[in-house]
Design a protein that fits this description.
- By secondary structure, this protein is mainly α.
- Helices cover 48% and strands 7% of the residues.
- It folds into 2 domains: 77 residues, no CATH class; 108 residues, no CATH class.
- Strands 1-2 form a two-stranded antiparallel sheet.
- Helix 5 crosses helix 8.
- The two termini are 42 Å apart.
- The mean pLDDT is 84.
- Bound molecules: zinc ion (ZN).
- Zinc ion (ZN) binds next to helix 2 and helix 3.
Length: 193
Amino acid sequence: MRRNTRAGEELSRLKAYFESPDVCAQHVMADYFGSDEPPQSCCSTAGSRCSACWDAGRAPESERRPEVARAFHSPRPRDGGAHVDSAQRAQRVDRQVHRLLQLQPRGMHPRRVWHALRGDESAFLPGVGRMVALPRALRDSRHFGGRADLVFPEVGRSLARLAQLGAAQELPDGTWQPLRPAGATAEARRNGA
Ligand SMILES: [Zn+2]
């Protein structure tokens, strides 16, 4: 199966998981790993109960959520740290984009960066008018297919951030070139550059 097809499936399953907070987590896991129903003991006591079963009121009246489960409990877990999450995600995307640029030091078009991150084996090349396989260096990169969910405008935003950091530059023909090693980029970030 193509890597981005599989990633798409994984993402939709993950999304379904978070969108059904009432469904027992242990059942979802068992289903995901293709095993039978989880053992009867799962979610049967306060020490083994998943948060979904607590939240959905499937615990006996007499049982109370243990302290650890209480510590992790939030009625709106996905709101926590949303800003940090997006900043961290942007940084990770930047590192991946920079790494891919390094693999094509003479310059790479943003669309090609995008296709590499999505894991597309080939991309339509307007100049040639047909599908052309992505260079082997890109396809062999561990970042190939590393962002199957990325939308194209995110590539542009990432390149703009890298340019601001002095880590990449746009050439007159619209392709992008790396300027500094990735380590130097991370260093510059830590120093607030
Ligand atoms: Zn459960």
